[in-house]
Amino acid sequence: MATKMDDEEKQKLYDEFVKGIWRENPVFIQVLGLCPSLAVTNSLMNGIAMGAAVLFVLVCSSFLISLLRNVIPKPVRISIYIVVIATFVTAVDFTLAAVAPDLHKSLGAFIALIVVNCLILGRAEAFAGRHGVKESVADAIGMSIGFTLALCLIGGIREALGNGTLLGYSLFGPNFEPWVIMILPPGGFLTLGAYLFLFAYFKERSEEKKQRQADAARNLTEGRRAA
Amino acid sequence: MNDLLWIFVSAAIINNFTLTYFLGLCPFFGVSNKIDTALRMAAANIFVLVITSFSTWVLNTFVLFRAEYLRLIAFIVAIACTVQFVEMVIKKTSPALFKALGIYLPLITTNCAMLALALFQTTRGYGLLQGQAYALGAGVGLGLALLIMAGIRQENELVTIPKLVRGAAMNFFIAGILSMAFMGFAGLFSSH
Fold first, then answer.
1. Is it the case that residue A88 has pLDDT exceeding 90?
2. ipTM score of complex
3. What is the pTM assigned to this prediction?
């Protein structure tokens, strides 16, 4: 009995973890946390660094908030969440400035702006404030991996097309004329727009496929009945 | 005076908060489906920005010079209080406007534009008046982008758009093209 419970719990944790990566991807599906996902993704490295910073902040704040969820008074919970998040962001900001000053410089104010990233406050309000510690941490890790994945996808495309490089290595040889617009602000909007278009296409196609299968199944049973 | 004007124009169009810094994107996509609501949102934004600029300047000059590491926390608390205050004022003076803004009013707290303004103002070392000009310019810039977007989206409702790009994807493409247009302002003050 006990092992069955354990299995169920594990399955549940796994589900919470996986859903953030693809099915409820924060950037592509929920369209949350747009400022950093567009502003810093002019190179893949920036995307990875931003993702790591968000991972740390989201996991720590989810842990603390889910731990304190029964102590925090309901009417002032949002303010408390923000202060908790701001504390962790300050820690990340100062650590990054000390450890990797160049990276800190290229990310600029956007590390500090993680405080107002709707993704983090959204997870605190929608999940960590209502669930236990284990589930919240699983959810936070999944969500931030999904976020990092999205940042890498956007940053990779923008760096490859706009600069002809990936993580600093030249991709297309010396004759490639970079599309400078891709690393400038408009490129961010256009890349994310293109991704959303692509995802809408895949969703449409899988739904059509399901519909066709359902139709075929129905035709089959009707055909049998007629026979 | 010239300096203030330059700060204003620079924040409003050359370095537009929404279209070149990607700040305040949530309301930019969220409330830009009608010109009417967009206008109200823009007004609330300007109001909050100007008060935030003032309160963070006070915090910076009189309180935070001894405890720099508390800056983020202090700023976000100041912004949250400002938004609460604006909410109360609007609720008392114009209940209709309060209703129209709905959920987007409290959400101004997590609008990145507010915190970004406070941070940029600090790193650039702006004084009180410069900060006010900057806040006003940023607010006008946010409002401008919001209104243009709302106008385009209202027109878009009358045309047939392929099903796949309708909604979020289309809005991003429009924003990308607008952002390209705003890049043209970059040469406006080449001497600076």
1. yes
2. 0.86
3. 0.86
